Amino acid sequence: MEKHVVVIYPHPDDESFGAAGTITKYREEEVPVTYLCGTLGEMGRNMGTPAFANRETLPEIRKEELIEACKQLDVDLRMLGYRDKTMEFEDKRHVAEHLKSILDEIQPSLVITHYPEHAVHPDHNAMGAAAIEAVRMMDAQHRPTVWAQAITNDYINELGEPDIKNDVTAYFDKKMEAILSHKSQASGVIGQFQEYWATEDMKEAAKKHLGKEQFYIWHFGE
């Protein structure tokens, strides 16, 4: 049984698409979960047709969506205040020290983040690298386990099979609730599912696409 799980991703919706099933499993086991969200995703390109937002209003919209998703998942939320699409330009040591200060306070037994260089988006790679560095900086005897999530197309060829393979189809409905909370970003993907939602085949296809969450255990090599 984990003591406390901390999820560290850069954007609103990363937690829902990437780890909502795993989060729900831990919450059903009454394990506390905290989400450290790096940015508000304010540079997201999806502002609707017709537009429902502009550059000034999108951050507040995404903030409210993030709060709602975290309510659905029953997790504590901490917004770290970094700027979207600039994480790769932040000083990694500075971000790591920021994260470490929070981890020292929470004392989690497990940290979930992105796998650096295997997470597609520069913000994903940079936040994952900073999260891993934050844990590396902790006393080795008290470090939490780190699960790193790779999402590039070739990650299995590059890294081998993931260490953790969570079948989260049992938590599919809760995961969908969390994803749908991010209306501004999820509408395109979810619209494809919802259009045929009445058919069992489409629901099963969605489960197949979203029903597995995989992670690598990060080894610090010390």
Q: What does it look like?
A:
The protein has helices at residues 14-28, 58-73, 92-106, 122-136, 155-159, 172-181, 183-194, 200-210, and strands spanning 5-9, 33-37, 76-79, 110-114, 145-149, 164-167, 212-217. With 222 residues, the chain is of the alpha/beta class. It has one domain: Rossmann fold (3-Layer(aba) Sandwich). Strands 3-2-1-4-5-7-6 form a 7-stranded mixed beta sheet, sandwiched between helices. Helix 1 crosses helix 6 (172-181), helix 2 runs antiparallel to helix 6 (172-181) and helix 3 (92-106) crosses helix 4. The longest helix has 16 residues, at 58-73. It starts with a strand and ends in a 5-residue tail after the last strand. The mean pLDDT is 90.
